[in-house]
Amino acid sequence: MKGKVGVLALQGAFREHRFVLESLGWDVAEVRKPSDLEGVQGLVLPGGESTAMAKLLQSDGLGDRIKELAAKDLPLFGTCAGMILLAKDIDGSDQYRLGLMDVTVKRNAFGRQIASFETDLSVPALGSRPVRAVFIRAPYAARVAPNVGILAQHEGKIVFVRQGNMLASAFHPELTPDQRIHGYFLKMVSEYQ
Amino acid sequence: MSEIGSWKVKTGLAEMLKGGVIMDVTTPEQAKIAEEAGACAVMALERVPSDIRAAGGVARMADPTIIQKIMEAVSIPVMAKARIGHFVEAQILEALGADYIDESEVLTPADDMYHINKHAFKVPFVCGARNLGEALRRIGEGAAMIRTKGEPGTGNVVEAVRHMRTVMSDIRKLTTMPKEELMSAAKEMGAPYDLVVYVAENGKLPVVNFAAGGIATPADAALMMQLGVDGIFVGSGIFKSSDPKARAKAVVLATTHFNDPKMLADISKDLGEAMPGLEISTIAENQRMQERGW
What we know:
- The complex is a heterodimer of chains A (193) and B (294).
- With 193 residues, chain A is an alpha/beta fold.
- Helices cover 25% and strands 31% of the residues of chain A.
- Chain A has helices spanning 14-23, 50-59, 62-71, 81-86, 180-191; strands at residues 4-8, 27-31, 43-45, 76-79, 87-90, 101-106, 117-121, 131-135, 140-144, 149-154, 157-163, 166-169.
- In chain A, the strands form three sheets. In chain A, strands 2-1-3-4-12-11-10 form a seven-stranded mixed sheet.
- Chain B is an alpha/beta fold and 294 residues long.
- The relative contact order of chain B is 0.16.
């Protein structure tokens, strides 16, 4: 095994992240309570419902523990709802968030489920071949601070960002067979050891 | 190329709901209570199943005004029910922007032979099933998510347990069959051959499978999760109990921590009265909602 990463397993598509990370040779811990974070070298915050996960993050101090570890440069990767949880500001909402990235997100920004879509997304950092990106009731980053790197945009909307030890996508790389985005995150995890 | 309403996008939303609780609500206030408790979606209804059962008569799609008001009240996905085979109710729900349609046996069927051709819609569908053949027929028609039928509105989990155990046992049988037996198995269970082959090779359904029908307590939710479902629908169980707020929150916690009996013990404390229960044998066979569906 190359090391151990955690996947937040309160609600949502955590199993899909687990399968991708395991197939890339990493050990995976499902994280439901603070003690599950013991020894993880990175943490994935999966897609799901951000309000549901927010309630569960607050119920036993798990959210606070993640914030402490993030301050010590634990690499984090949020997809969709995970991106919302990582953002400092959520447009028009005061719901709980971890508030770690200098990003303002807009929830359900492309519309309801009927507007959910998949598309070929250009991500220059991963090479010239586009990523097939699945957007489900997805958010986007309405504003980002200058210290936040923009990795991809769709029709002018920011959908993939990095800030130091943190990575966030509005779409779901765990739902497609292309493993380059998880590979990118795991490289970050290795770099921060 | 961008594509809306693709199979990936339809099944993908169900993937995002996993490990969560979908609650029946009849008013915007109830929807807010559900969202506040951590529900991952709500089902917008005119009446919860136990009231539908009590009222009798023909149960139909809810008034669009109720669905719209609930959609305005919460940021989580809003599902709504259409009658079995009533594709125009489904068209109306799609036009309203409902996030998922439940082609549901809780309502009175509009067609006694055929279900909706769900492939014709951009909005995804969930359907009930009592066994693997029924689940695969619904998926063949385009359902992007399956749930057990259970016996809705009873607060009695026994039927949901039976349906889940039956589906799991049917799946296990397929995985041990040599390939030449699969066509006969498909014929016997009345399921599409290609989906039977998929299940035999993968040991699971090709879509997410939730529990529904009779879940009334946090322990019921955890039981279904330990039996292998991906998440929980609670119908009458929340808002027909004595303390909906506390119970809603407890069922959400129990669905996440389903494998931790110590936490479940804490979660189950001081919740007041559960909804009144119904023994299945006291319900006449022609009144059992689970018998609806073909």
